[in-house]
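Entry 14. Structure prediction run on the chain below.
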Amino acid sequence: MACESGTRAIRKVSLTLAGAGETLLRLERRVGCAAGAAGFAPDLTLRKDYETLGLTISDTPALLHEGQVIFRGLPRTEEIESWLKIL
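Output returned:
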C-alpha cells in the first residue's frame, strides 16, 4: 500500500521505534505514512536494543513517545494517524 500525501508536514515529532527485523521496518513505514497524513514530519530513532528500554521480544515492535510506550505490535496506519492528531 502506498502512502498518500496528506496535508503538508508542519509539525515535527520525535518518536522511537523499538524492535528488530521485518516488523520494525513495517512499523517504520506505517509511522511515516501516518505522520505525513497527519501533518507531521517524524524524527525517528530506531532501537534494536529494546531490552534496554524495558521491553521484551513480545512487546516489539513498539512505538514510543517521550519514553512512554504508545503502541505494541503492529497497529494499523489509521490508528497511528489518529493518535498523532491528538498530540
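The first helix runs from residue 21 to 38.
Filed with the rest of this week's runs.
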